[in-house]
Amino acid sequence: MATASGLRVLPTLGGWSHGLGVARQSRALAVLVPCVTQVDNKSDFLGNRPHRQHPGILQLPRVSLPQALSDAAQLLLRTNSVPNMEKQVQTLTNHLWSRHVPVEPEELQRRAADLEKKLGNADSSQAEEKLRGAVLRALRKTTYHWQKLSYNERLSLVYMAARLDGGFAAVSRAFHEIRTRIPEFQPQTLMDFGSGTGSVTWAAHNTWGQSLREYMCVDSSAAMLGLAERLLKGGSESGDPFIPGVFFRQYLPVSPKVQFDVVVSAFSLSELPSKAERTEVIQNLWRKTSNFLILLENGTKAGHRLLMDARDLVLKGKEKSPLDPQPGFVFAPCPHELPCPQLTASKSLACSFSQAYHPIPFSWNKKPKEEKFSLVILARGFPRETHCWPRITQPVLKRPRHVHCHLCCPDGHMQHAVITARQHGRYKRDLYRCARVSSWGDLLPVLTQSELPPSPAQDPSEN
Question: What is the pTM for the complete model shown?
Answer without folding.
Answer: 0.84
